[in-house]
TrEMBL record:
This is Homoserine kinase. Keywords: Amino-acid biosynthesis, ATP-binding, Cytoplasm, Kinase, Nucleotide-binding, Threonine biosynthesis, Transferase. Catalyzes the ATP-dependent phosphorylation of L-homoserine to L-homoserine phosphate. Its main location: cytoplasm. One of its GO terms (molecular function) is ATP binding.
């Protein structure tokens, strides 16, 4: 038997759609695997009633198949499904790591990214790896078709999760299929600023680099209260705020000394909009 903890993640960070991601210290899924003749799955924890236990419909079933093994896989969910915090990716990454250890497959964490991404394909229709890569590797990750770059960045964060559901498939459908040259220039500049900021653990550069004129405005419209919550977090000291992954969570970057105030401002503003929420005061994991 093997048990691993797989962290939540936040993808995109505004300017890095399907490219940037980072691991969060909390929350996390715990995945336990045992040898078995056929793959079976059980799920407990946050939102577990919404998660299919049929291996053909569950991300971890796809991961076991990609690795060519069978097992009983138990997932204890700490990351709420459809939260924008890489819930399916945490389970997929945890299963990949645990199965790799259980069967002594000898894959590196980087090699496991593609197996874990097969689980993502089942959920969103595309095998994008911007959540599974940071869940497996930790830190800040840049995923492109040519490989993965990882940085052990260190920053304070608030991830605020409202009690609403946005499906990844729906959130991908609203992304514009074309944009202007000016928006491309702005996005490249912001993404470069953010990446440099991560190498310097600089919350101002990272926050500034999270601005995104293309994907985030389209997705913010799916989240009740987004504009007000973002403005409140910035007023409370956040250096940048954006949609976490496909939403509905918002991710704020801040200084450690502002973390409590930023979290309180986001919770209070969602509350004023009639939306319950919870805030994770966390760091890059
Ligand atoms: N990059 C993905 C998206 C992450 O934003 O759709 C969600 O799984």
């Amino acid at each position: 038997m093997r048990t691993v903890r797989a962290p939540a993640t936040s993808a995109n960070l505004g300017s890095g759609y399907d490219v940037f991601g980072l691991a969060l210290e909390t929350p996390a899924d715990v995945v336990r695997v045992e040898r078995a003749e056929e793959t079976s799955i059980s799920v407990t924890g946050v939102g577990s009633t919404y998660i299919p236990e049929d291996p053909k419909s569950n991300t971890v079933g796809a991961v076991a198949e990609a690795l060519g093994v069978t097992a009983h896989i138990h997932i204890d969910k700490g990351v709420r499904p459809s939260s924008g915090l890489g819930s399916s990716a945490a389970s997929a990454a945890g299963a990949a790591l645990a199965l790799n250890a259980l069967y002594d497959l000898g894959h590196s964490r980087t090699e496991l990214v593609s197996a874990a991404a097969e689980g993502e394909a089942l959920v969103s229709g595309e095998a994008h790896a911007d959540n599974v890569a940071p869940s497996l590797l930790g830190g800040f990750t840049v995923v492109t078709d040519d490989g993965i770059t990882q940085v052990d960045a260190s920053l304070s964060l608030v991830a605020c999760l409202p009690e609403m559901v946005v499906s990844t498939r729906d959130a991908r459908e609203v992304v514009p299929s074309s944009t202007s040259r000016a928006a491309v220039t702005e996005t490249v500049g912001n993404a470069a600023t953010l990446a440099v900021g991560m190498t310097r653990n600089d919350p101002d550069l990272v926050g500034r680099g999270m601005d995104d004129p293309v994907v985030t405005p389209a997705r913010a419209a799916l989240i009740d209260g987004y504009d007000d919550v973002r403005a409140a977090a910035l007023d409370a000291g956040a250096t940048g705020v954006t949609v976490s992954g496909a939403g509905p969570s918002l991710l704020a970057v801040c200084r450690a000394s502002d973390q409590r105030a930023v979290a309180d401002a986001m919770l209070e503003t969602f509350d004023a909009a009639g939306v319950e929420s919870r805030a994770y005061q966390t760091r890059i994991g």
